[in-house]
Specification:
Elements (H helix, E strand, L loop, with lengths): L1 H11 L10 H16 L3 H10 L14 H10 L13 H27 L1
């Protein structure tokens, strides 16, 4: 299931695997796949992907591959996704909801740890 998440994340970031041509980018891609496979945040990732918009500009804060995905996104040919219009009110409201959800999840996790 993890591999579906990384492919979905890459698609939403505008990263096309068929456009990865340099050996360095190919290595980054393989590293991201391996990291994703071993990631402890599979559940959080699925929830995040279920609620995230179809096109995003960055990976979520908990993503172990955020650095690699940023580099792969930057290396993509064509216009840069990061050069799109500034965020609007709807984007900021969505971000606020994401932050609230992440905080609730952290609180829930810390409560679970105390119950053990």
């Amino acid at each position: 299931m993890h591999l579906l998440h990384i492919h979905e994340m890459m698609a939403r970031l505008g990263i096309r695997r068929d456009a990865v041509v340099s050996p360095r980018s190919a290595l980054r891609c393989e590293t991201a796949l391996r990291r994703c496979k071993a990631c402890p945040s599979e559940k959080e990732c699925k929830v995040w992907l279920d609620h995230a918009p179809a096109a995003i500009t960055s990976a979520p804060w908990f993503c172990l591959n955020a650095d690699i995905l940023f580099e792969l996104q930057y290396d993509q040919p064509g216009p840069r996704r990061l050069e799109k219009e500034p965020a609007g009110i709807a984007d900021l409201e969505h971000l606020e909801e994401e932050i609230d959800e992440a905080l609730i999840n952290l609180i829930d996790k810390s409560g679970d740890d105390l119950a053990i």
